[in-house]
């Protein structure tokens, strides 16, 4: 079981591939994703034991230096994070809807993990910068109180970094949004 994940967001694709190689050579980690994002950025996400992930991310930071836009290590990742990243969360009905928008992919994943741990909500999707001009969007659902608490916690976790764009809670989203969101 994956206990930790680490992610580096890089300013350009070529350097991103170089850094991914350094990360994979540094620790016994599993490559979750290595891909280019808008606008010409690159993310590398690895998973494994906490020590191995820390080693890989530290090596990536050292190899990337000024090319690193954002990064994180999450030692005890919430299990709902992986389906939300893959866009394959099975949600039968939409309750209240929470949205957190960020300026970076890394901050979105960190905010989503914090939100999911803060209250009993379901992560619907973590959309990372594809077609979003480098931004990322988290959607989550549940009862109004839980969604409000989760959005607040996730937003607060990244607010100081300057990567928070906006946050919204819809207590009762219009029925036509259900199909668009789910």
CATH class category of the largest domain: Alpha Beta
Number of domains: 2
Number of helices: 6
Q: Which structural category fits the helices and strands?
A: alpha+beta
Strand order of the largest sheet: 2-3-1-4
Radius of gyration: 16 Å
CATH level 4 superfamily of the largest domain: BMC (bacterial microcompartment) domain
Summed over residues and divided by their number, the pLDDT gives a mean of: 90
Number of strands: 8
Percent strand equals 25-35%
- Outline: globular
Pfam family, one: BMC
Keywords: Bacterial microcompartment
InterPro entries: BMC_dom, BMC_shell, CcmK-like_sf, CcmK/CsoS1_BMC, Micro_shell_prot_PduT
Domain BMC: 4-86, 96-182
General description of the model:
The chain is an alpha+beta fold and 182 residues long. The protein has 2 domains: 71 residues, Alpha-Beta Plaits; 101 residues, Alpha-Beta Plaits (2-Layer Sandwich), CATH 3.30.70. It has 6 helices and 8 strands, in the order βαββαβαβαββαβα. The strands form 2 sheets. A 4-stranded antiparallel beta sheet has the order 2-3-1-4, sandwiched between helices. Strands 6-7-5-8 form a 4-stranded antiparallel beta sheet. β2 and β3 form a beta hairpin. α1 packs antiparallel against α2 and α4 packs across α5. The longest helix is centred in the C-terminal third of the chain and has 16 residues. The relative contact order is 0.17.
Brief characterization of the structure:
This protein is an alpha+beta fold and 182 residues long. The chain folds into two domains: 4-74, 2-Layer Sandwich (Alpha-Beta Plaits), CATH 3.30.70; 81-181, BMC (bacterial microcompartment) domain (Alpha-Beta Plaits, 2-Layer Sandwich), CATH 3.30.70. The protein has helices at residues 13-26, 50-64, 81-86, 105-118, 144-159, 175-181; strands at residues 4-10, 30-37, 41-48, 68-74, 96-102, 122-128, 136-142, 164-170.
């Amino acid at each position: 079981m994956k206990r930790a994940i680490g992610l580096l967001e890089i300013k350009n694709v070529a350097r991103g591939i170089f850094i991914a190689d350094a990360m994979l050579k540094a620790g016994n980690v599993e490559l979750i994703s290595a891909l280019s994002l808008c606008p010409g950025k690159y993310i590398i996400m690895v998973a494994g034991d906490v020590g191995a992930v820390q080693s890989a991310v530290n090596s990536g930071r050292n190899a990337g230096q000024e090319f690193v836009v954002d990064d994180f290590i999450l030692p005890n990742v919430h299990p709902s994070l992986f389906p939300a990243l893959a866009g394959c969360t099975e949600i039968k009905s939409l309750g209240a809807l929470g949205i957190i928008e960020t300026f970076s992919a890394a901050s979105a994943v960190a905010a989503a993990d914090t939100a999911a741990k803060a209250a009993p909500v379901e992560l619907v999707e973590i959309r990372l910068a594809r077609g979003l001009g480098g931004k990322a969007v988290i959607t989550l659902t549940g009862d109004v109180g839980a969604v409000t608490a989760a959005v607040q916690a996730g937003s607060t976790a990244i607010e100081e970094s300057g990567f928070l764009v906006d946050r919204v809670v819809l207590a009762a989203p219009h029925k036509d949004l259900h199909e668009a969101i789910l």
